[in-house]
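Fold this sequence, please.
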Amino acid sequence: MFRNFVFKGFFWMAAPLMLLMMTGCSATTRDFSPDDTLHYDESYDFTDKKTIVNDLVSSLVSKPPLVARYDRPVIIVYGVANRTSEHIETSGITDDIRQEIMQSGKARFVNKVQRDNIQSESDYQYGGNVSAETRLQRARQVGAEYMLTGTLRSIKKKQPKQVRLKKKTLQYYSLTLELTDLQTGLIEWTDSAEIVRESSKPFIGW
């Protein structure tokens, strides 16, 4: 009887704690607008991508050579080199830049990613299964006039060790883009977008 009393007492004391733990561990979700600024830590995230893309596209389309062109010159993108210590998929940066520039109406782009598929389709059409009247004409692809390249860099600084309740980290990102004239090899435009963020975390916590 005494054991049952102790067990029941322990159960009623532990039950609220167990309920609290189960509630705290349950998963929740909520939606945000892509335009919202959200940062969970100091590292690179989708908000940073949107910021640097907007800054660099605004610069590119408003300065020479594109600002003076009305014939929508053709650009080929050779990617952004990741010089940070993080795994950042830089193709997302160039995809967004290409999309924004095309929507501005200032340039067109060679589809470098699909070149192999284009060549494969061309070979198929000339393989005897497609009529001569409907197959594509070879040697009609448009050559690029400009090449767009870039470099993403980062610097991370931690606060020196000392007696304090929180540790601070300073994170710096810089994306530099270059537009090169393929005929002359000259850089016709270049600009950088920078992000500096400080994070503060307690020494004790989750």
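The longest helix spans residues 2-25. The CA atoms of residues 72 and 107 lie 4 Å apart.
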